[in-house]
Amino acid sequence: MPRRPSADPSTPPKTPAEPRTTARRQPRAGAAVPARRRTPRYADDGLSGLILRLPWWLHLLMAVLMWPLFTEALPRLPVHEAWQLTLLREWAPRGWPLLSAGCVLMALVSARRAAGRRGAKPVSRGRRRG
């Protein structure tokens, strides 16, 4: 670990750092310049923002498809472990309403966001003087 300079008066004060003499490198002509990262526009700009950008009707379609998937398809899967058998044959047919309700809720939020993006007013850059 580097030692911190002591506050002892016998230690000479540090000299001010010399100004940096190397200039900032400019990109060469034709060289690829990396794209600047965009700052997030809202709090859920990650995976949840991506899911909410899906159209509302796709969320409703997923909600409708939950019933046949969870009541017919999943219980028929071949399983070898007892816990998998319990999960797929007893819990899955009872769990689809919860997931379906979540898809309906996402559809409502997605539709509201889409309406907000369509009717959004341009952001003002300040008062015009003139």
Question: What is the structure about, briefly put?
Answer:
By secondary structure, the protein is an all-alpha fold. It contains three helices and no strands.
Whole-Å distance between the termini?
61 Å
Order of helices and strands: HHH
Largest sheet: none
- Would you tell me the overall average pLDDT? 76
Please tell me how large the radius of gyration is. 30 Å
Strand content: under 5%
The helix/strand class is: mainly alpha
Principal-axis shape: elongated
Low-confidence stretches: none
- Helix fraction by DSSP (H/I, runs of at least 4): 40-55%
List its traits.
130 residues, mainly alpha, elongated
Description:
The termini are far apart. By secondary structure, the protein is mainly alpha-helical. It has a domain at 64-118. The protein has helices at residues 47-52, 56-73, 82-118. It is 47% helix and 0% strand. The longest helix has 37 residues, at 82-118. Helix 2 (56-73) runs antiparallel to helix 3 (82-118).
Give the SSE map.
Layout: H1 47-52, H2 56-73, H3 82-118
Helix pairs in contact: 2-3
